Amino acid sequence: MSPIERFLIERGGVARRNELERRGIRRAAIQDALVHGAIILVRKGVYAVPGADSDVLTAARHGGEVTCAAALRHHGVWVHDEDDVRDQGHEMDGSGRSDHEESPGPHVWIGPSGRQHPHAGCQCRVHHDRWSRGVGFGFADVLLALLHYAACASTEAFFVAVESALHLGLIGASGMRWLSERVSFALREVLAFADDQSESGLESLLRFRLHLCGISLSAQVQIDGVGRVDFVLGGRIILEVDGRLNHDGPSMRHKDLMRDAAAAAQGYETLRFDYAMILHDWPRVLAAIQGRLTALGAIAQGATAVLQGG
Predict the structure, then answer these.
(1) Shortest CA distance to 270 belongs to which of 298, 297, 241?
(2) Is the four-CA dihedral 134, 137, 141, 143 of positive or negative sign?
(3) What's this model's pTM, rounded to 2 decimal places?
(4) How far apart are CA 81 and CA 269, in angstroms?
(5) Cα dihedral sign for 71, 275, 162, 182?
(6) What kind and span of H or E run contains 203?
(7) Contact 95, 134 (CB under 8 A)
(8) Pair 17, 24: CB distance under 8 Å
(9) What residues have CB less than 8 Å from 109, skipping those under 6 apart?
(10) Are 150 and 183 in contact (CB under 8 A)?
(11) How many CA atoms lie within 13 A of 94 on its CB side?
């Protein structure tokens, strides 16, 4: 591997010519690498290795860094899959429906005074916020990407991403304060509700949607003889969120059934919802939870009536 390729890889795959020259790489070497296909020209004065991330290349072509959902995914933050939510810019109501659309192109941070560079097929959405460092290439920092995501995503998608970042330890109390100072009043309330307990985006999504319906629950509850469960509702109903992979196969199914039986022996009822139900059939999930809460309330009223001699 040549020094120019090694440097570009160290820089995330893309760098300006003046950065290469400061590293001691002469223009003749840059031209030779271009001729032999070791590097590619992104735009005038900007070069990349051929295998660089496609979003990074597009953002560099436009003049900045990848931000918003793509940057969050790069950092490991859980965001809605595009296959599950047709467009991440949609604002959703409690049913998961959307009411507005967002540009399908990459989101690019160029800073408050950055210059945009026209390029073929451009569908980029630009963010101008000031940050603690200058604009380069690659991926925006988690906090900055969250700020941009707040302006582009649905409220619930933003909430899920924030909780994922909290759970992963990518942001802390100071970061939450920073975000709160820069988002709308409505999103400040969302940030105040967020915590680091949810272990998956699906758990955060379920918790947030139930919160909007006025239903509160306890998260990550340890039950003797059962283990830790995702949520407990009304002191009697266990809610478990089964992801795409974690509960596949006969052995995991048997383990789930054994846990449910152990919980039932202690008077708990378990409701399980998988990825597809929560993302694509939310009304059914909500109806099931509300139905069991209604039944639980009726049982409690009946018991009270018996105790009072009714």
Answers:
(1) 241
(2) positive
(3) 0.85
(4) 31
(5) positive
(6) helix 201-212
(7) no
(8) no
(9) 59, 64, 65, 66, 67, 126, 127, 128, 129, 131, 135, 140, 144, 148
(10) yes
(11) 13
**Chain position carrying tokens 């018991």:** 303
pLDDT by 10s per residue, the chain, length 310: 888 999 999 989 999 999 999 999 999 999 999 999 999 999 999 999 999 999 999 999 999 999 999 999 999 999 987 555 443 333 444 434 344 445 567 899 999 999 999 898 899 999 999 999 999 999 999 999 999 999 999 999 999 999 999 999 999 999 999 999 999 999 999 999 999 999 999 999 999 999 999 998 999 999 999 999 999 998 899 999 987 555 455 677 888 889 999 999 999 999 999 989 999 999 999 999 999 999 887 655 544 444 455 5
pLDDT at 164: 97
CA atoms of 158 and 150, how far apart (whole Å) = 6
Amino acid at 46: V
Take residue 182 and report the two structure tokens written for it. 């820069």
Read off the tokens for 69: 């959902």
Handedness of CA 143, 147, 148, 154 (dihedral sign): positive
Residue type, 193: F
Rounding to the nearest 10 degrees, give the CA dihedral for residues 255, 259, 260, 265. 140
Q: Which of 160, 229, 225 is nearest to 196 (CA)?
A: 160
Q: Is the dihedral of CA 233, 289, 273, 277 positive or negative?
A: negative
Q: Residue type for 82, please?
A: E
